[in-house]
Design goal:
- The complex is a heterodimer of chains A (354) and B (333).
- Chain A is built from 13 helices and twelve strands.
- With 354 residues, chain A is α+β, with helices and mostly antiparallel strands.
- Chain A folds into two domains: 187 residues, no CATH class; 137 residues, no CATH class.
- In chain A, strand 11 and strand 12 form a beta hairpin.
- The longest helix of chain A is centred in the last third of the chain and has 19 residues.
- Chain B contains 13 helices and eight strands.
- A five-stranded mixed β-sheet of chain B has the order 2-1-3-4-8. In chain B, strands 5-6-7 form a three-stranded antiparallel β-sheet.
- The chains are: A alpha+beta (354), B alpha/beta (333).
- Chains A and B meet through strand 11 and helix 13 of A and strand 2, helix 5 and helix 10 of B.
- Bound molecules: iron/sulfur cluster (3 copies).
- The site of one iron/sulfur cluster (SF4) has 13 residues of chain B, from helix 10.
């Protein structure tokens, strides 16, 4: 079959090396010899990508880094009049191209949420847009769904290729790779030898099989009303998330969480204006200058987190749910809070009310 | 969801769970409520639960997946139940967790007379990531202990792992598996795995390394830190809560940058604030999504505290922690 190549498992690193010469590649790698977690890192020679499980941290970092310099500034005395201080501004260097190898469908889908907010106006975030346009995704056919995953419940699925530029299908002994977009397609030949008919057929079989899978059984319909009905119900929120620690894990591992903070980090007369990830689970997130905090406890904070993803976002953006079902917040939560349970209960109790 | 919890779970620890239910039912009417554990979203996870009605008692469970130290819920805001000051609060504790209660009592955050403690002698808690690393599981349906082995059933069959290889690091270095304070014990006391002075092996190993090697080690580890502050929020003794120096802008101690120096600063302050107070429950390390061995820093400080002051936190509620005292006659420092 035309257009598909095969990368044997033991040639993956060298294929990535060739690719990396054309475009900087990010790959999922182990966090350490006896660690379970994997992380996306810029590829370096000798790195062995780990393709058999979802990453803990995200490829979100590639397009929306945890910290990003928006501009640098310096206060300088005007040479002709030292009594006058001028502000010198500098734009940060332009972002380069990137290709994320082995992103899962949920990882890519997360950016769809970002796109609505950052690129569709009324304000366009140029830094985001620039990186987004310059980043390609080689999406992995996901065969590793676990008990926390529910991507099929939120409009995606383990064989979803939306937003992908290349498609990686694991087969016996290696990977079959094919192009999905024009830009992605231009890298295919570089990665390996043309797939044999058998390899291509095995890949298609696997793709068909996986696309029939339904991952997760959550039904998010009716949540918008549930959120309204239960908004003031403290006992409900307490019964759902009393065990929450109020840390930032769920938001920082979430592919769709896009809230950020802006700070000026200065030293003497120079500084940077920085954008950094923020978390709605932190107390200071809504802390007002007066000292008043409209979301005084974790209950209100969690209510906002689930509300934003399953209610307010869909209300604003034609029904689109701001969750990609990757299950990371469930898996990484130190006290195993399950967002699916909260969503289910929001619905149930609101029916019971009516 | 309820179906899930009925289907999943431990087989061997049913006896302890049943006993716990009996003990709780017997005193629940006199309590304000009780915090314990229930089955989580899959067979490898439990989750904290708060119970104040008899019909919810069946949700409580005990198994080596009851990894969470629940004592922080007693002192952090908001209170987990609308409080009735006249009544006691029930709490389930393992050996390590009981030391947090002692430490909190030492620092006057808790009164012993306000608690009803269900003590659970513990043979170690399972670190699910360690298990997954050894056996990549898919669709875990049950987990149980059979003698020296952990048996896990998933979609591909039954897998086994030596028990000790499934345990959290904190459990392998635990000298106090039996609750030091309790009103009732849910099971018979167990034999400690190690003696007190054998607990600092990894610290000693680190001490053998050169400064450069240690710097390289911590730089690589902390490079992964995402500043989610789970380690801080999970610690029952991190009591500043929403007033932490890492987040205040005025005064400003830390920037929002992700450099190693910022993260070092955070972890050093975190550790120093716990010096001689930390009971080594290991929660900070357990909750870290990036698998950074953050308890190790506190272990080092505690080892120093032991050597210089002969003091161990969370053992004796009558003692005043050394860094909370001011004694002009002190000569070791
Ligand atoms: S809310 Fe949870 S499940 Fe949804 S995208 Fe975020 S991490 Fe994934
Ligand atoms: S610092 Fe870590 S080990 Fe020490 S008491 Fe706090 S959570 Fe437990
Ligand atoms: S829990 Fe881990 S990642 Fe989060 S702040 Fe602590 S050390 Fe860093």
């Amino acid at each position: 079959m035309s257009g598909k190549v095969f990368i044997p498992q033991d040639k993956l690193a060298s294929a990535l090396e060739r690719l990396n010469e054309k475009v900087p590649v990010w790959v999922p790698v182990s966090q350490g010899a006896d660690r379970w977690g994997i992380d996306f890192k810029p590829f370096r020679a000798g790195m062995v990508p780990v393709m058999d499980r979802q990453s803990t941290a995200l490829p979100k970092e590639v397009i929306f880094p945890q910290v990003q310099t928006l501009m640098t500034f310096e206060y300088v005395k005007a040479p002709e009049d030292p009594g006058r201080v001028q502000l010198k501004l500098e734009e940060p260097p332009e972002a380069g191209n990137a290709l994320v190898f082995g992103a899962r469908p949920c990882d890519v889908r997360g950016f769809f949420t970002f796109d609505r907010v950052f690129t569709e106006g009324p304000f366009v975030d140029n830094q985001y847009k620039d990186r987004r346009e310059k980043t390609l995704f080689a999406v992995l056919l996901c065969r590793e769904a676990d008990e926390a995953c529910f991507c099929s419940s939120v409009g995606s699925g383990p064989a979803d290729t939306a937003g992908g530029d290349l498609w990686i299908t694991p087969v016996e002994g290696g990977y079959v790779v094919e192009g999905l977009s024009e830009r992605g397609g231009s890298y295919v030949q570089l990665l390996g030898d043309p797939a044999t008919e058998e390899q291509a057929a095995a890949a298609s079989r696997s793709q068909e099989e996986v696309s029939r899978q339904k991952v997760g059984s959550l039904d998010p319909s009716g949540v918008v009303q549930g959120q309204k009905d239960r908004f003031e119900d403290k006992d409900f929120w307490r019964s759902m998330v009393n065990q929450c620690l109020g840390c930032g894990v769920c938001t920082y591992v979430c592919p769709t969480c896009y809230c950020f903070n802006i700070t000026d980090e200065m030293r003497h007369s120079r500084g940077e204006r920085m954008r950094s990830w923020d978390s709605c689970m932190f107390a200071v997130y809504t802390q007002e200058a007066s000292g008043h905090n409209p979301r005084p406890t974790k209950l209100e904070r969690y209510r906002n987190r689930v509300g934003h993803k399953f209610s307010y976002f869909p209300e604003k953006y034609d029904g689109m749910i701001a969750c990609c079902g990757c299950g990371r917040c469930i898996r990484s939560c130190p006290v195993s809070i399950d967002i699916r349970k909260v969503v289910e209960n929001l619905k149930e109790r609101s029916h019971a009310c009516a | 969801m309820s179906l899930l919890s009925e289907r999943l779970g431990w087989i061997v620890f049913e006896a302890e769970t049943k006993r716990l239910h009996e003990l709780v039912k017997a005193v629940l009417p006199e309590l304000d409520g009780i915090v314990g554990w229930e089955q989580g979203f899959d067979a490898l996870h439990a989750t904290p639960v708060f119970v104040n009605r008899e019909e919810d008692v069946h949700r409580l469970m005990w198994s080596p997946l009851c990894v969470h130290n629940l004592s922080g819920y007693l002192v952090k805001t908001p209170p987990f139940l609308p409080r009735d000051e006249g009544r006691k609060v029930g709490i389930c504790v393992k050996g390590c967790d009981s030391r947090s209660l002692v430490a909190l009592e030492q620092e006057k955050f808790l009164g012993r007379d306000r608690l009803h403690i269900f003590g659970i002698p513990c043979e170690g808690t399972v670190d699910w990531r360690r298990v997954m690393k050894k056996i990549p599981l898919r669709g875990v349906s049950s987990v149980r202990r059979e003698g020296p082995e952990l048996k896990v059933e998933d979609s591909r069959g039954v897998h086994s792992l030596p028990w000790e290889e499934s345990l959290a690091r904190r459990c392998l270095r635990c000298a106090h598996p039996n609750p030091l304070v309790h009103d009732v014990l849910v099971r018979d006391p167990v034999e400690p795995r190690i003696k007190k002075d054998e607990a600092y092996g990894l610290v000693e190993e680190m001490d053998q390394k050169s400064l450069e090697e240690r710097l390289a080690f911590w730089s690589a580890e902390l490079d992964r830190c995402i500043r989610c502050y789970a380690c801080r929020n999970a610690c029952p003794l991190c009591v500043c809560q929403d007033r932490c120096i890492v987040e205040t802008r005025d005064p400003k101690w830390l920037t929002q940058k992700m450099g190693i120096s910022e993260k070092f600063m955070f972890h050093m302050i975190h550790s120093l604030h716990l010096a001689g107070r930390c009971t080594e429950c290991g929660e900070c390390e357990r909750v870290c999504p990036m698998e950074i061995p953050v308890t190790l820093m506190k272990e080092k400080l505690n080892q120093i505290t032991r050597e210089i002051l002969g003091y161990e936190a969370g053992i004796d509620s009558q003692l005043v922690p050394p860094l909370l005292t001011f004694n002009p006659g002190e000569h070791e420092l």
